[in-house]
Design brief:
- The chain has a 7-stranded parallel β-sheet, with helices on both faces.
- The protein has a single domain, classed as P-loop containing nucleotide triphosphate hydrolases (Rossmann fold, 3-Layer(aba) Sandwich).
- The protein has 213 residues and is an alpha/beta fold.
- 36% of the residues lie in helices and 17% in strands.
- The structure holds adenosine-5'-triphosphate and magnesium ion.
- The site of adenosine-5'-triphosphate has 18 residues, from α1.
Length: 213
């Protein structure tokens, strides 16, 4: 099972990837993370904090050919470099992903960057066109995860409404602005499954997006 974490630009994706990895691990799944971003933030975070699972690097257009997934029960999660700057990496990942997640803040700036980009290909378009490169000829399911959500209910509701109107699937679970996450690399992760990331694992199980551990 390969989950592709995507965003047009910096939108909290590396943090979400690391935290999701820990939440799945704590829920009893074998986990492997993939760093497909040239910045190698996820790998640096692992080097400093020592994740209890492997983080492998492959920020190339050969991801699909070179990646070796965990077995049936395993969860592989890939932190994909910005689709704005590295569409070739995202295209390769999407050939083999079982689920695509767009990570964004509940802000108009992130919504426009994601849904109405001026100079780059829309992430949704990349996901849809990946169907041509997949044995099933079907694109992976696409979901949106709202992160860094401030306790300003109005903007969250507005963005959810816009996303729903535009026919995106949006997780009910949101990742709040968390004080303990000060920077993307380095902080030690403890008890990820007890917070919103654990709730996200449960929602993904309930939706049938992942099998139970
Ligand atoms: N839930 C959160 N609460 C507070 N801060 C967060 C949260 N998630 C991420 N951040 C912070 O937001 C910034 C961007 O997050 P992150 O590096 O994960 O995004 P990214 O999409 O991987 O960006 P890039 O790879 O372009 O640097 C970081 O400083 C990170 O610590
Ligand atoms: Mg990153």
């Amino acid at each position: 099972m390969l989950i592709a974490n995507l965003s047009p630009r910096s939108m909290g994706k590396t943090t979400d990837t690391g935290m999701m990895g820990h939440a799945f691990h704590e829920a009893g799944y074998p986990v492997q993370l993939w760093d497909a971003d040239e910045s190698e933030h996820l790998s640096q975070w692992h080097e400093i904090a020592g994740f209890p699972f492997e983080v492998k690097k492959n920020a190339t257009a050969r991801f699909a050919e070179e990646y070796t997934p965990l077995g049936e029960r395993g969860i592989d999660i890939v932190d994909v470099g910005h689709t704005e700057n590295h569409p070739h990496i995202a295209d390769s990942v999407l050939k083999v992903a079982d689920l695509a997640i767009i990570h964004m803040e509940a802000s108009m700036a992130d919504y426009q960057r994601m849904h109405q980009p001026r100079t780059s290909t829309k992430v949704e378009t990349m996901v849809r066109r990946s169907a041509l490169d997949r044995p099933s000829r079907q694109a992976p399911p696409l979901w949106v995860l709202l992160n860094r959500v401030r306790s300003n209910v109005r903007s969250e509701r507005e963005i959810r409404d816009l996303l729903t109107e535009a026919q995106y699937n949006v997780f009910t679970v949101k990742i709040p602005m968390l004080d303990e996450i000060k920077q993307a690399t380095g902080f030690p992760v403890e008890k990820a499954a007890r917070g919103p990331f654990g709730e996200l694992v449960t929602e993904m199980q309930n939706l049938g997006l992942v099998k139970n551990a």
